[in-house]
Records
---
Amino acid sequence: MKNIFQMPYEIAYYDTDMTGKMTLEAMIRVAILVSEKQSTALFRDARYLKPLNLGWVITQYDLEVTRYPKTFEKLVFYTQATSWNKFFCYRDFWLQDEAGTRIATIHSTFVLMDLTSRKIKTVTEEIIAPFGGVKENKIYRGEKLPPLMNASGQDYRVRYFDLDGNQHVNNAKYFNWLLDPLEKDFLKGHEVKKAYVRFDKEVMYGESIISQHEFLEENVTLHQIKTAGNLCAEAKIWWQEI
Amino acid sequence: MKNIFQMPYEIAYYDTDMTGKMTLEAMIRVAILVSEKQSTALFRDARYLKPLNLGWVITQYDLEVTRYPKTFEKLVFYTQATSWNKFFCYRDFWLQDEAGTRIATIHSTFVLMDLTSRKIKTVTEEIIAPFGGVKENKIYRGEKLPPLMNASGQDYRVRYFDLDGNQHVNNAKYFNWLLDPLEKDFLKGHEVKKAYVRFDKEVMYGESIISQHEFLEENVTLHQIKTAGNLCAEAKIWWQEI
């Protein structure tokens, strides 16, 4: 496999929760950092995209974690742009521990957004070719999630520091909104084993969201994040008791 | 000066706000990471303190930032344990940019907390001597801040991921609570030049806080963070228009 990019990373105390295990939010933001490092190495980072008034936006994660690393652990984060078509770019991430064991895999979908019109733009060879993915017309559609029937909800107001360089709430922040409503007693005793997250609509400063969830079956939850009337993200999460 | 510990650090996109400048929260958490790295090098990190049922807690920051570093910048973070007495340990941090210019200085006060009783414990030679600070009886008391007369307030509910290994809200999270209520229009146009923050009482899971602030004069704000009836933190912040 070509164009695999890697970065060693030592888990910092601030990447972990109160039990000392890496949070999903931290895993996602370090993964995205690795893809940014690859972009920098290929002269395709924000300094290339900003003058084109473009930014990368993530529309989907499909992830599986077999073991959560702990503070002080030294990992290697890997990433590879796998394929792309007119609108979607697919990128994988995986984490390897010191024993050489893969402990997490993240499949992701990126799109290019015009920073003024907020519309998705077509991907060009010039932008994407250096990453070495395969150009193919295959579109990966995620699982269609059922509607929530009996959800409980928790409100979150967008904070200034939730925003990123694309002037909207950074995708990693959604993991806090998705998981926090399950509350400490549950979160201390359960780990996310698998998650499918789809981002439908960006969330902006001044908005409040409601994060709703319900149990589809034991240890499987369905989630929706909504602003007034709009579905912004949905997720299905498979939990494991610890 | 002896026992100065340093760590190179490259500013990641997630350390910055929507304008690409490092946030105070990120600056503080990376600074504390450097002190943890020094603790590890001296065999005095959490793996040494946890069996003693102790944790370091920060009670005070007195900081000055002359320039906020931006995404991609490579800095060196320095730290030095300067002095200590029966209850208080004083530690400085400073950040140097690639040109060798010091761009920020943080004076901090640490105490040792018993993780069960939540009481402050006396500092022992065995715990602190390896850091090489001077033992002296001098206690640095911060500025006494006036009461708020006409403050506006914003509520924040403690989230599960606000908690750290000491099972309470991590001190860096307070910077989000302190600054967010000033809102985007102000925050985009102003930088924290100097800040004095005192932590009076820990904030636990299940609590909500109110973050109050008022302008003492143009570009100087006073802040209080309170749970029901209790003052948990107060701050004075000097701003600079940008």
---
Amino acid sequence: MRIAELSRRSAVPVATIKYYQRAGLLPPGELTSPNQARYDGRHLSRLRLIRALIEVGRLPVATIRELLVEIDLPEVSTHHKLGRVLGTVAGPRPTEPDDAVAAAAREVQGLIDRRGWRVGSGAPGRLLLAEVLAALRRTGGDDIADLLDEYADAVERLAALDLEMVRRRAEPAAMVHGAVLGTTLGDTMVAALRRLAQENESARVFGAPEPSHERVTGDG
Amino acid sequence: MRIAELSRRSAVPVATIKYYQRAGLLPPGELTSPNQARYDGRHLSRLRLIRALIEVGRLPVATIRELLVEIDLPEVSTHHKLGRVLGTVAGPRPTEPDDAVAAAAREVQGLIDRRGWRVGSGAPGRLLLAEVLAALRRTGGDDIADLLDEYADAVERLAALDLEMVRRRAEPAAMVHGAVLGTTLGDTMVAALRRLAQENESARVFGAPEPSHERVTGDG
């Protein structure tokens, strides 16, 4: 494809694509004439990764260049590459145009209906989830968004634990106290546990076969 | 107990306790002489809740006063009270003195050993989890910290889903792309799903018996 089509399919302006090439983030296309080049699917997927690292991972260009060099090394294990990325990216900041969020809000309603969840129409989690789904679909994370029901299965267990903890606290003020802690610190606890469990899963799936106490990710 | 003991057991300075009383957050003690009052366990648990709302929930005093008034109303359902709190509190910001974090880091190591997780000694999730556990133990959330293994059970399923998504992406750059999205947007997706599932659980456990599409929490 020509650079115009690459731009259209990636939703990245031509001038930005050229900047990524000068900055060493995107390999040049195959020259078909002195001032025309041809691009293929690898350029498209690389561009989508760059946009995800910038927009979602909020990484500076210099860091992305380092990461991409490592990602391209065939001798580096996938487990190590994942560890480098997980240790580098910052938090999300999903903000989306209204149309995409509106479509995602219908997805959220579908999920709630399928599961029979009793959730109010103004629950803040609805908008947050719609924003995240829209951001995933825009940045090449359709396969993650498509796992929504499986994630909801796992999260139902978390929520049952949360409410079990609240229920055990007999007095109303203590229940509210527990809900405050569970909502705020509880989210961070789950995020931290998830990071550790991910590293373990990555070691199991992609890492060396024998168990080891050596640090295998993030020591880039 | 006297105010000095209340201060010692809650780790809240006497001057701060007096400020909370003037601000209407903490009921006065029972006067035993013109300038001495007696406090009981309800004052202690109320003080701990106030500290949790300020330090963990990061709420301003005026908001806390409104919340406490509602929490004290016997005719308001627990489901509604929980919804008000969940809709009001902000995110966490755990920072702890070194001793408490060091003790919590040993708890984290114990968890990793019990589960046989392969996690590097410098994994960022270790410190984050230790900080959260220390914050929970300091702010009256021991029962949540004690559920660590149950939460780890539920989170292992999440991590397996995360890695399954990465594994399905055949090409290394696409795997890394998936890990970026899963790590950042994925955490927010889980937090949003959890909020919705919590509301449903709260409706189930504490709410009206018949299913309803009416919003039952957070509509202050």
---
Amino acid sequence: MKALTALALCCGIALSTPALAADKPEDIIKARQAAYQFLAWNTHRIKNNVDNPTQFNKDEVVRAANAVQAVANAGLGALYAPGTDKGTGYGPSRLKADALNPANGAKLGQIATDFIREANAMATVAATGEVAAVSAQLDKLRGTCKACHDNFRNK
Amino acid sequence: MKALTALALCCGIALSTPALAADKPEDIIKARQAAYQFLAWNTHRIKNNVDNPTQFNKDEVVRAANAVQAVANAGLGALYAPGTDKGTGYGPSRLKADALNPANGAKLGQIATDFIREANAMATVAATGEVAAVSAQLDKLRGTCKACHDNFRNK
């Protein structure tokens, strides 16, 4: 379980906490899909603000960026339990089996580390209220999303 | 739109931001359902820890409580746009029309204010790592969830 361990370590959570022991795979998949959908809503709000600079709403961007940071640091590794590449939450899981393959542990761990670092930076940059800086940081953050999708999510 | 205004004010977000202007009702409902599902995952993790005090994982509780706080402060009022009591996101919306009725603005605003206050307190209490205090604060937080469900969510 090297891949999972890497995710667990970089997300700072033990995989065998009591919180998950009784959870069914479909519940875990649903929670995972909800976490990333909530994340997408927040990055979408930041994007719409940088795309409409004359209406830039710093308060909204800060709230959204803080939410992004909290999702990234929530311990999402717990939502990559064995077997959850198959099954249905809100819809069929799009997670590739590769994501749960120990051989990919280092690669997955690096992507997760990058994601958390850029999400933390997103919150810091949002607080400055500087549109260009927020836009640049959003690009960095989305790059880490894309790295995971390209490698570990089915189309 | 007094009800929406109250929610918007207490959640600190304008309802007519560019971020939402182009969003379809089903996208808003999906984002709302995801936000509360992610919230539920996090309160669930806190509950499992207080229910298993010998395995209490302070790190997990802190991460979950910080996520709860970020969701509560994300500006969820934006997800209660007119018409979103009907329609389907991941599933049919369970929001009662009453939630979007201006006559219920004060009531809804109070529930939202209570929710945000208790979510902020949840993060503060989690950081102490005191199981009994975390348990008591979780009860307070869940009381505000129940108040909204009892009044504004269909069974």
---
Amino acid sequence: MRIAELSRRSGVSVATIKYYLREGLLPAGTTTGSPNQATYDEAHLRRLRLIRALIGVGGLSVVATRDVLAAIDDPDVDAHYLLGIAHRAVAPPRRPVPDAEAWQRARTEVEDLVRRRRWCISPDAPAMDQLTDVVAAMRALGMDELLAAIDGYADAAQAVAGYDLGTVAARAATVPPGDPQRRALMVGAVVTGTVLGEAMLSALRRLAQEDASGRIGPGDTRGATGTDPETA
Amino acid sequence: MRIAELSRRSGVSVATIKYYLREGLLPAGTTTGSPNQATYDEAHLRRLRLIRALIGVGGLSVVATRDVLAAIDDPDVDAHYLLGIAHRAVAPPRRPVPDAEAWQRARTEVEDLVRRRRWCISPDAPAMDQLTDVVAAMRALGMDELLAAIDGYADAAQAVAGYDLGTVAARAATVPPGDPQRRALMVGAVVTGTVLGEAMLSALRRLAQEDASGRIGPGDTRGATGTDPETA
């Protein structure tokens, strides 16, 4: 198909498609006769949908998307390693931590949690730092009640991770071992599951919060005006 | 305290504190004698820690942080309404949806889910649109296995929302009804719980995924090289 049809079928503008081509996110089409008349196939359409999901719904940057796509395309990258790349791509940028001692105490709390749950985690996993940042910030803000529920949070996270990995296994089961399609299916499931699964969980938590908050009722808080709005 | 001490105790640079003062995130200090000698108190320190947590750990923009702080400071805003403001602040920017029909089908799926779970949700909740975007993207990518687990995801989200709201209630219980501190405590818990709780859940899910992925083992995927890396 021509670029105009690729644009129509994907819902991505021609200008954006050309940008993805220039940035190396989308492989070049097959040139026919004139250089401005490249043609594209179904694989381009699928790749374009994946790019839109990662950037538009998953919130990944163009650079992070390129890293993830390169890992998907590399046949030497296995699914477990790819998970690490996907996690690095979605990891929020870190800021310098003001209080090194408090951060180290939070790190110990996180390491205790990992040990308590018998999770096997590589020490340089970006999520270890991410969780430590959150725990340190919560302690600094005096959010001890929420930190007391961290094992409940971890139970929920573990249940969801079970679904995520089950999805990958279900994908793999549709193709016999050794089939070249198998790896591509699995790595695709890992990446999209990490990025889109996170967006799904986040939206569902907000809906469940709204429901739970509505059940408590506004009467419990309205009218009790605060004098110290700094207290968080 | 002077700005230099506020900087030392909060770990935020003097330049950044001045930026927050200019942008209206941090209230001005009390001026003493010379205009460059304003003094700050513990409330400024607490507010600064809250700003750093929202921006640095929660990933909020300065504009979104200002909206959230304005809502916290407004005594007419109750905790349930504030939850909506916090959700809007953390909602990812939306992109135009390419396929309006597919989006509408995804919306029906989301509405069915909300009905099935007997969740009470306002129709304009940003999380409804957010979840619809995710479901539409997953359907377009053929991620039907993960969507089949959406009720399992919703169970986990509901469990976590229970902890979140329990935290708010626990905070409120420390102060008698009618006490002016009560509202400030609750709204603070709602905002920080929404933003930091999300970062905590996200980090825990990644750790649980890494553990689950490691247990499956790399042997299942390595060596099965793909020929169609477009397949996601």
